[in-house]
């Protein structure tokens, strides 16, 4: 069924609802499905998979909300969006008011509505979902948020927050990902002169280099960055803090009164197994950056090559593994297999992303651990030695620990391997900033309440502190740090 037909179905359901709709009536309304491209079509293009709600679909889904007095969904939102209020406005077709409510707390509704794991955050505590016995039955808050943002963009509505009078303070924001965007917006609102420094030639951080176009169109990220410019934030690209200028130089020589560091976790990890130096082995970071940021899938317009492969193995079970596997299909691979040492139930990836990968033809080799990558006489990948596993007792994450089965090794033919097992923090700023403290993983150690590092006036948030986290968690850290920075600057 196409998007228009699905929206018409929603309209008919709305028209059939009683005028005095009660809680039981709302609870009886099923979740409104999200229209999307057909799997056999979308796996051959880079266009967005999920097509978004139409107006009647959004209204119908919003009508399911019970408007709980204790607002359990808000408690799970890292930026504390007033979810019942904006959802209530959507149910009344007051979309502009809904947008205003969201933007009191979030500058990125079009992005968060698409890529945030709402099933583990706001929707996890939804009363409707709990009453119906599954988070899958919760009010689809993320889909409604996306609708509101898309409605605003289609209607040319670009609301900007008011800016306080010039404070006389100068602030640097290092990086341009979600944490930095949130911090820059809140700092600029207080009238500070904000400079954002991005190492790459395009802004957006992981939003542009890490998340594929078919999940998050880059035009959306560009429009959010443009809001910062319209607010008066100065943005400089190709500016590598730690090389172009150090943190100390920015503060002591360039006159910055405070600095926020939101450089993310972009240093890829490898497994340390034999064969990882063979031709045809990639970190997911490199593979996705070539496709997402440098558009290697565009054979005529791209200036960077992509490695052509028929049989691709992806190591890992998170969202990045799903992104890499689905990208490989779109780049022409005939077979893509995710090799994961636990079962599907333990995979940290969003359920929707796993389902989309499965629908598109990605294969899953569960309870399997890669122990060696094998090459041919030319030094190119020819296969992976895989060891079978079984599940043992739960580990610190609460998931059952994989236990390798000795003597179960077997060779599986592949001609490309993508390693997607996580990232570490880039050590550059640590190496060039004496006195800044990091933990054993290289993440910055900060005050949990303020985000301040061991250096006075220097704050940090997002993946550089948390390790790999979600967009909305990074934004929450950026906002928390910005609030503390505003207090710090006001007292100077």
Which terms would index this structure?
Fumarate Reductase Iron-sulfur Protein, Chain B, domain 2; FAD/NAD(P)-binding domain; 20 helices; alpha/beta; 492 residues
Give the topology:
Elements: H1 3-16, H2 23-28, H3 39-42, H4 55-63, H5 72-75, H6 83-91, H7 95-103, H8 109-115, H9 127-131, H10 141-154, E1 170-174, H11 178-189, E2 193-197, H12 206-209, H13 218-231, E3 234-236, H14 247-252, E4 258-261, E5 267-268, E6 281-283, H15 284-292, E7 311-315, H16 319-330, E8 335-339, H17 351-360, E9 363-365, E10 368-375, E11 381-394, E12 400-404, E13 410-413, E14 416-419, E15 423-424, H18 428-432, E16 458-460, H19 463-466, H20 471-490
Parallel strand pairs: 1-2, 1-4, 2-3, 4-16, 6-14, 7-8, 7-14, 8-9
Antiparallel strand pairs: 5-15, 10-11, 11-12, 11-13
Helix pairs in contact: 1-4, 4-6, 4-10, 6-7, 6-10, 7-10, 8-10, 11-20, 15-16, 16-17
Model description:
The chain is of the alpha/beta class and 492 residues long. The chain folds into three domains: 3-154, Fumarate Reductase Iron-sulfur Protein, Chain B, domain 2, CATH 1.10.1060.10; 170-266 and 425-490, FAD/NAD(P)-binding domain (3-Layer(bba) Sandwich); 268-423, FAD/NAD(P)-binding domain. It is 36% helix and 15% strand. Helix 15 crosses helix 16 (319-330). The longest helix has 20 residues, at 471-490. The protein is globular, with a radius of gyration of 23 Å. It starts with a helix and ends with a helix.
């Amino acid at each position: 069924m196409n998007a228009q037909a699905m929206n018409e179905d929603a309209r008919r359901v709305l028209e059939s609802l009683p005028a005095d709709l009660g809680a039981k009536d709302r609870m009886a309304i099923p979740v409104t499905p999200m229209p999307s491209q057909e799997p056999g079509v979308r796996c051959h293009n880079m266009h967005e998979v999920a097509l978004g709600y139409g107006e009647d679909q959004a209204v119908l889904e919003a009508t399911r909300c019970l408007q709980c007095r204790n607002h359990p969904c808000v408690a799970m939102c890292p930026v504390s969006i007033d979810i019942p209020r904006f959802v209530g406005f959507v149910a009344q077709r007051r979309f502009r008011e809904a947008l205003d409510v969201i933007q009191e707390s979030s500058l990125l509704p079009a992005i968060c509505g698409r890529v945030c794991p709402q099933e583990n955050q706001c929707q996890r505590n939804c009363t409707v979902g709990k009453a119906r016995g599954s988070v899958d039955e919760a009010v689809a808050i993320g889909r409604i948020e996306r609708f509101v943002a898309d409605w605003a963009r289609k209607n040319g509505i670009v609301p900007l927050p008011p800016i306080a009078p010039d404070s006389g303070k100068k602030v640097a924001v290092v990086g341009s990902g979600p944490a930095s965007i949130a911090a820059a917006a809140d700092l600029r609102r207080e009238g500070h002169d904000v400079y954002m420094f991005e190492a790459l030639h395009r802004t957006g951080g992981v939003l542009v280099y890490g998340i594929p176009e078919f999940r998050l169109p880059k035009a959306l990220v560009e429009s959010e960055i443009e809001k910062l410019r319209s607010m008066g934030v100065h943005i400089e690209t190709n500016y590598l803090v730690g090389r172009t200028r150090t943190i100390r130089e920015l503060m002591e020589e360039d006159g910055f009164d405070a600095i926020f560091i939101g450089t993310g976790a972009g240093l890829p990890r490898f497994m340390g197994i034999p064969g990882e130096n063979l031709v045809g082995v990639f970190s997911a970071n490199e593979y996705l950056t070539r496709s997402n940021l440098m558009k290697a899938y565009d054979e005529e317009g791209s200036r960077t090559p992509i490695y052509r492969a028929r049989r691709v193995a992806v190591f890992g079970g998170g969202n990045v593994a799903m992104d890499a596997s689905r990208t490989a299909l779109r780049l022409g691979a005939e077979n893509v297999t995710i090799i994961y040492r636990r079962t599907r139930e333990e995979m940290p990836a969003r359920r929707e992303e796993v389902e989309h990968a499965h629908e598109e033809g990605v294969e899953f080799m569960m309870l399997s651990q890669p122990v060696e990558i094998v090459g041919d006489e030319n030094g190119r990948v020819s296969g992976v030695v895989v060891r079978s596993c079984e599940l043992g007792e739960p580990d610190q994450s609460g998931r059952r620990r994989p236990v390798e089965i000795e003597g179960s090794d077997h060779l599986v033919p592949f001609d490309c391997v993508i390693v997607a097992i996580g990232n570490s923090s880039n050590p550059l700023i640590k190496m060039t900033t004496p006195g800044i403290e990091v933990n054993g993983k290289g993440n910055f150690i900060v005050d949990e309440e303020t985000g301040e590092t061991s250096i006075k006036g220097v704050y940090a948030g997002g993946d550089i502190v948390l390790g790999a986290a979600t967009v909305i968690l990074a934004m929450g850290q950026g906002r928390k740090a910005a609030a503390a920075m505003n207090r710090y600057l006001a007292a100077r």
